[in-house]
């Protein structure tokens, strides 16, 4: 068997077309969706992601505001900017690119974002609402994964789903979304004993551990849908400098029913769902002011 490749770029292009239509309709009613992006420090990968977010906004007809701070930025400076953006009715979405420099209090920064503008869905109140299955901003990467599962027709209800990784950004919200959708979910992590025992039972396997090519074909159930959230740059060997995921694509592809590549899989969907969350926030704001 060789797996169907789930093309994140193609799905993104389709969904971004729909988002652009909704943004245009809002703009015609006098409410142009607007996303504010805060980047602190000089992490090269973060700079690429922020650039792609801003470019994605522009293409979709979403206004963007970008605030770059040096590595030495203080907590007070970032908090003051967030207060200003929270109070600005023309701003519908606010995000702080992660990771932040170590001297900043990430939790305090994320909690300072108005939950109505928290398009990353990282505020504790949005996390709590998601865990209760209530309306909430859904973190972009796991939301993108759910869209990818839907696009492939992968049945989620009643499926055995295994999530490897328990981060606040991906693993935990991913497990909540799959649970809310009716899957039986197992969350595995660095302390899990006999990881392969769990992964081999998974109809849906989501890898988000940050270890290059960690999940190999012998750990995959035949016919499973494998979603690779990892983005690792290989340091040495013949592929040095190349990007790869947490899944060993070649061996897993031979066993899985469907699989996401890296690059071109989940990554593009992360930015797409951010654009969608921004438009959702603007739609809510427009409704609230009768437009
Ligand atoms: N505030 C946030 N910070 C971070 C998030 C997030 O959702 N919100 N997620 C990640 C980084 N991230 C978005 O910010 C992100 C990662 C990867 C991609 C992507 O499109 N990857 C491409 C490859 C890009 C490359 O060449 O390096 C792919 O997989 O095809 C988009 C967004 C951590 N921080």
From TrEMBL:
BP GO terms, sorted: L-histidine biosynthetic process; methionine biosynthetic process; purine nucleotide biosynthetic process; tetrahydrofolate interconversion
Annotated metabolic or biological route of this protein: One-carbon metabolism; tetrahydrofolate interconversion
InterPro entries membership: Aminoacid_DH-like_N_sf, NAD(P)-bd_dom_sf, THF_DH/CycHdrlase, THF_DH/CycHdrlase_cat_dom, THF_DH/CycHdrlase_CS, THF_DH/CycHdrlase_NAD-bd_dom
Keyword hit for Amino-acid biosynthesis: yes
Catalytic activity: (6R)-5,10-methylene-5,6,7,8-tetrahydrofolate + NADP(+) = (6R)-5,10-methenyltetrahydrofolate + NADPH; (6R)-5,10-methenyltetrahydrofolate + H2O = (6R)-10-formyltetrahydrofolate + H(+)
Keyword Chloroplast assigned: no
GO CC, any one term: cytosol
Limits of the Tetrahydrofolate dehydrogenase/cyclohydrolase catalytic domain: 6-120
UniProt binding sites for NADP(+): 165-167, 231
Stored CDD domains: NAD_bind_m-THF_DH_Cyclohyd
Record-linked Pfam families: THF_DHG_CYH (PF00763), THF_DHG_CYH_C (PF02882)
Task performed by this protein: Catalyzes the oxidation of 5,10-methylenetetrahydrofolate to 5,10-methenyltetrahydrofolate and then the hydrolysis of 5,10-methenyltetrahydrofolate to 10-formyltetrahydrofolate.
Subunit structure: Homodimer.
Protein name: Bifunctional protein FolD
């Amino acid at each position: 068997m060789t797996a169907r490749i789930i093309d994140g770029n193609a799905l993104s292009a389709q969904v971004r077309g729909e988002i652009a239509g909704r943004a245009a309709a809002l703009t015609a009613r006098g409410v142009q969706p607007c996303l504010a992006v805060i980047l602190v420090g000089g992490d090269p990968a973060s700079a690429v992601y922020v650039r792609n977010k801003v470019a994605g906004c522009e293409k979709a007809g979403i206004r963007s505001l970008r605030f770059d701070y040096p590595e030495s930025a203080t907590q007070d400076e970032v908090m003051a900017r967030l207060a200003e953006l929270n109070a600005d009715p023309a701003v519908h979405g606010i995000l702080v690119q992660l990771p932040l420099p170590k001297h900043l209090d990430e939790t305090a920064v994320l909690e300072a974002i108005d939950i109505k503008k928290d398009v990353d869905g990282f505020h504790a109140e949005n996390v709590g609402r998601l865990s209760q299955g209530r309306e909430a901003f859904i973190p972009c990467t796991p939301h993108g994964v759910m869209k990818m599962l839907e696009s492939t027709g992968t049945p989620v209800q009643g499926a055995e789903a295994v999530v490897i990784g328990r981060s606040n950004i991906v693993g935990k919200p991913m497990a909540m979304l799959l649970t809310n959708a009716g899957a039986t979910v197992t969350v595995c992590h660095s302390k899990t004993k006999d990881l392969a025992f769990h992964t081999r039972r998974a109809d849906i396997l989501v890898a988000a551990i940050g270890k290059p090519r960690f999940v190999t074909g012998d750990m995959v159930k035949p016919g499973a849908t494998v979603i690779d959230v990892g983005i690792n740059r290989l340091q040495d060997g013949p592929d040095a400098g190349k990007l790869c995921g947490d899944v060993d694509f070649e061996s897993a592809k031979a066993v899985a029913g469907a699989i996401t590549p890296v690059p071109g899989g989940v990554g593009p969907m992360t930015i797409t769902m951010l654009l969608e969350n921004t438009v959702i926030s603007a739609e809510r704001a427009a409704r609230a002011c009768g437009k």
